[in-house]
Fold this sequence. Notes:
- The protein has helices spanning about 40-50, 55-60, 120-125, 125-140, 155-170, 180-185, 220-225, 245-260, 275-285, 300-310, and strands spanning about 1-5, 15-20, 30-40, 70-80, 90-95, 105, 110-115, 150, 170-175, 190-195, 210-215, 225-235, 265, 295-300, 315-320.
- By secondary structure, it is α/β, with parallel strands linked by helices.
- Strands 3, 4, 5, 6, 7, 14 and 15 form a 7-stranded mixed sheet that branches.
- The chain is globular, with a radius of gyration of 20 Å.
Amino acid sequence: MKAIVYHRYGSPDVLQYEEIDKPTPAIDDVLIKVAAASVNPYDWHFMRGEPYLLRLMAGLQAPKNPRLGADVAGTVASVGDHVKQLKPGDSVFGTAKGAFAEYVCARESRLVLKPESVTFEQAASVPIAAITALQALRDKGRIQAGDKVLINGAAGGVGTFAVQIAKYFGAEVTAVCSGGKLEMVRGIGADHAIDYRRENFTTGEKRYDIILDCVGNHLLTACRRVLSPQGVYVGAGGGTGRWMLGPLLQMIALPLLSWTGSRKFVGILAKMNQSDLIFLGELVASGKVKPVIDRQYGLSEIPEAIRYLEEGHARGKVVIRVGQT
């Protein structure tokens, strides 16, 4: 089968489109014939081996696992002996290590049935980004109807899902992004849209019950100024570089700021689970959430897809259509 592999850390140039052996599912695994995948910052962090602390898990000198890709949608080809919920022929979506390939194995616990009305491309855009947005707003932010919610970085993968999920819960949503994307975020439900190049939301008079920060380009003390007295700041991204000292310091600062007042400062690390995948699949099937897909690439074009995502200009998700080269 064809797959994207890499044997050293670096730019998208290290990615190779190669013929490799088709995997065989373990007793708890499902073998998926991949129809679509999507690209996340997660992928280029592993590709580059940055921040360096990531290499303690991924491999110090070179990647232990030469396969990339996490979000996946496709058709079950075969199942292990202990798999109970899924069977060959089922259309599924979820996460799998090494999804940038024609076939991939995944744990049954990380997959759910794809709603019939949802395309493979839409389903593949959901897992990491939409679950991050959902858990940030619902579990960390304790979102309620009528809350004033600000999404910083609203035009990205997590941000476009967050705008729509916040509206689903009945919030008043302010979206922050670049000027060229203002109409897009309004089109997916944002009540207010701010061009960050023209206006700094941290210096305004409006107060927010939840700030979901997908960018991390403002000081936490500045964000605290525009939080309501019981407001919650949720950090869901931002920060690049080899050492990422800024984000590390932020991880220390978040609990310290929470201890010094009524406002809460927390981070989010999404936890993949079937119940949230099913819930999000139902939202997409009902039309209450519509995945924003910026560009689609073939499997052999993944270096270009990751390069585009790294530039930081993508509107929503970048999707891989497997079978297109």
